[in-house]
Amino acid sequence: MSPTGPSAFDQAREAAAHLAEQTGQAAYVALVVLGSGWGPAVESWGEPVLRLRASDVPHFRAPVAEGHRGELLVFDLGGRAVLVQSGRTHLYEGHGPRPVVHGVRTAAALGVRLVLLTNANGSLRPDWEIGQPVLISDHLNLTATSPVEGATFVDLTDAWSPRLRSIARRLDAGLTEGVYAQLVGPHYNTAAEAEWMRRVGGDMVGMSTVPEAIAARECSMEVVGFSTVTAIEGGGDVTDPREVVRAAESTAARLGPLLAALLTEGITEGARG
User: Using CA atoms, how far apart are residues 64 and 69, in angstroms rounded to an integer?
Assistant: First the structure.
């Protein structure tokens, strides 16, 4: 413990010990973070072994955004324990990066080496359709912050695992890949901002996920991500948060079996490697 209080990793170890005690499971192989409207993605996985309120676990905050359920679920996928964080904390809530990535660091303390992140996006490409799933190939961190504390230099060259993306494309050859840009929010971006993000290489924009990916890479975890198109930027339509959730829910339910297959194959192949 430092003079200013426990470190982020001390907090993660405390949460991990609590989860291990509550679940009877001391080690997990993967973490899945379900973003806006992604709760139905795990409905095809059967009943969870255990379901907890996230806010009952040390240092987790109850999500405030619509479409975030605020639960921690434990699933058995092929005899392996997978932790699912259904709902997340966002930077725009004003608590800083530490609680945003607490789930990732807790998973690392539980032995997790593979993280699957999901979210909803506004498409910066007019040729994409509402409800279309996109495999995240890279990101633009436009939040002017980082979850990394101190002089810890994290290489993000291959932040989004080429190995796991290759497995995902093998499982679904029709998947589109794209670069995800994160703004802080909670306001939506302007048309001029959307055009600027397009010009600097963004394919989609949202308000989450990038800090978690950075924190996972700091812990040497492999990261893969899926984003659902829930709005088309620059079209002149007003973004309705309820419509965002509804569009994501439909896609999430459809992608549940793909996510399970990706985790199973990614874990098995990684263990062989």
Answer: 9
